[in-house]
Specification:
This protein is mainly beta. It contains 1 helix and 28 strands. Strands 7, 8, 9, 10, 12 and 13 form a 6-stranded antiparallel sheet that branches.
Length: 348
């Protein structure tokens, strides 16, 4: 009789450890690296085991393997601003490259909900899109370098969160860096109107006694001031109730016209004597109100632009005087008057 026996051997392995130290993984192999590439394709291969466990702290993450250690430095958004509260539809940011090479490119991501569901990427023209393409990867110089860059097309009074990642060469896109967030400003405009003699309404401007053939100028001025963060500035407009100096008792009117009163038989109009700006602007008086001497601009029932700024402006101030000339055929009366309305509008 023959007897046969089967024997099994079970082998167990344990990670080496002490009370103070533990080796999470170990293996055998040369650990060598070999690379091959063509003009459009590259492969990095390894021989041996390259495994391990990611280590991290609150500020640093280290991943195992050759590819991970070849990553670009993780960039961050150094600052975001609204240009002192001026930007309601855009934000300005500055990127911190964290020492990456000059040929590195950066992907800037922007979100209106902290990247919960709204994720968009910055394009070279400053707009943002949810579609990720290679054009979103831009150099530090293209992003304005130390001067920074603008993200446009945003919503007012909305908080936007920014983050960035970097890539340089092959096998080297970093993780996204820390986030930075800021709220866009709200659109704003303020407007004030006083006279040189009155700081509170109702306002009145006197022309004194009108003598035939003599030009009368108002002793007081109408002073307006406007401030706005409107991207295209603001306009101050003027209109008249009567279209001239009307006598209610006689029905006679000295019509408002745009002319040099020196050569006219009669007329009524406004002339800007000064226009200035605290900051921003420029802020200018417009034709026909920007004349000199006795040139005046018409004030009628049409809403006409008096002052204008093409950019955000702070304290765009205008000073306006009134001039009138009566003729010998105008009916004498003591109730010639007009009611002027001033309107300010921001160009958002």
């Amino acid at each position: 009789m023959k007897l046969s026996a089967l024997m099994g051997v079970l082998l167990f392995a344990a990670l080496p450890a002490t009370s103070n130290y533990k080796l999470n993984s170990y293996g055998f192999g040369s650990g060598g690296v070999t690379n091959s590439s063509t003009a459009t394709y590259a492969l990095e291969g390894t021989a041996g085991e390259l495994s391990g466990i990611t280590g991290s702290t609150a500020n640093v993450t280290t991943k195992p393997g050759y590819v991970e250690t070849q990553q670009a430095n993780v960039p961050k958004i150094a600052s975001i601003d609204t240009s002192g509260g001026q930007y309601y539809n855009k934000l300005h940011f500055v990127l911190d490259t964290q020492g990456n090479p000059t040929d590195a490119t950066y992907l800037v991501a922007v979100s209106s909900d902290g990247f919960a569901s709204d994720i968009k990427y910055l394009l070279p023209d400053g707009t943002i899109t949810s579609t990720l393409t290679l054009s979103s990867y831009q150099t530090y110089v293209a992003l304005g370098a130390g001067a920074g860059s603008l993200v446009i097309g945003l919503q007012p009074s909305t908080t936007y969160t920014f983050k960035a990642k970097a890539t340089q060469g092959k096998f080297s896109e970093s993780a996204f860096g820390p986030t930075n967030a800021l709220q866009t400003a709200a659109p704003s405009i303020t407007f004030s109107l006083v006279t040189s003699a009155q700081s509170t309404p109702p306002f009145s401007i006197g022309l004194g006694t009108l003598s035939a053939g003599t030009i009368a100028s108002s002793g007081q001025t109408i002073n307006t001031a406007v401030s706005t963060n409107g991207v295209s500035g603001a306009n101050v407009y003027i209109k008249s109730q009567n279209g001239g100096l009307l006598s209610g008792s006689t029905g006679n009117i000295i019509n408002a016209i745009s002319t040099d009163l020196s050569g006219a038989s009669k007329g009524f109009g406004a002339q800007s004597t000064s226009a200035s700006v605290g900051s921003g602007g420029p802020f200018n008086a417009l034709s026909p109100y920007n004349g000199s001497g006795n040139n005046v601009g018409i004030i009628d029932s049409t809403i006409r632009s008096l002052y204008s700024s093409s950019a955000p402006v702070t304290n765009g101030a205008g000073t306006l005087a009134l001039k009138a000339k009566a003729s010998s055929i105008d009916v004498a009366a003591n109730d010639y008057q007009d009611v002027l309305t001033f309107i300010a509008a921001g160009n958002f």
